[in-house]
Amino acid sequence: MLCCLQGNWSQPSAEIEQFLRRYGASGIPFNAIFGPSLPQGHVLPSLLSKDALLTTLTKANASPSPDFTGGKIMKKILSLLTLLMSATTQAQTTDLPEPVKQMEKQGIEIIKPFSAPGGVEGWLGKYQDMGVTLYLTPDKKHVISGYMYDAQGNNLSEKTINDEIYIPAGREMWKQLTAAPGITEGSADAKCQVVVFADPFCPYCNKFWHQAQPFIKDKSISTKTLLVGVIRPDSAQYAAAVLAAKDPAKVWYDLESSDGKIKPALKGNTPA
Known about the structure:
Blueprint: E1 2-5, H1 14-22, E2 26-29, H2 30-33, H3 43-46, H4 50-59, H5 71-95, H6 98-105, E3 109-114, E4 121-127, E5 130-136, E6 143-145, H7 158-179, E7 183-185, E8 192-198, H8 203-217, E9 221-227, H9 235-244, H10 248-257
InterPro entries: DiS-bond_isomerase_DsbC/G_N (IPR018950), DiS-bond_isomerase_DsbC/G_N_sf (IPR009094), Thiol:disulfide_interchange (IPR051470), Thioredoxin-like_sf (IPR036249)
Protein name: Thiol:disulfide interchange protein DsbG
GO cellular component, one term: periplasmic space
């Protein structure tokens, strides 16, 4: 997905790029399309080709265009973007073999083709965030959905799905988890990092905390605890109070080491 972003600047901020990437999108400023050094007449034919589009945008002047905010220019840009989206979608749909195209109608998002043995053509897809492999027969009239195995019983589809879908998704999820507000215990040099979801009043979370302490002290693991509120009606308030404390790590240590007896003070504005 390509998102055109309104604003008199040259590149999206890191925060905007991160948000867009989360939904498989990229951001391009309006003035990257109508830059001072990029003739308007050069844009339209280039939009029909993805490679030509990338080349065009690379050549675009990074400095803001003084006239791109005008109403007429804005309408032209929106028209060009509509043309770009329809041309890209049409090209992708046209390139798909008919049996594979039919899979899209069943809700499978087709991602890319891949090499497959046995004379078939592989296509990688995704359905409700689950990886799907499709195999187009040599006559290109039939498609088989499922895993492919070799004579030794090895799953040949699994690696493609893992490499292209699950591993990148897992890395992105890990980045979000480690960036979320929480309580870090242990050394940055620990051999293993563990993300824990814990309720302030969860007895199993508390038991895990006690059992993890020796491994934290010898630098076998470090933990990042993300607090949730599910056990009691006031769990969320106490979780918020821990995170809002001057020293959240100490408040959490006191709560867990006392088996829930030393609770953080709830202030009047502690969110529920």
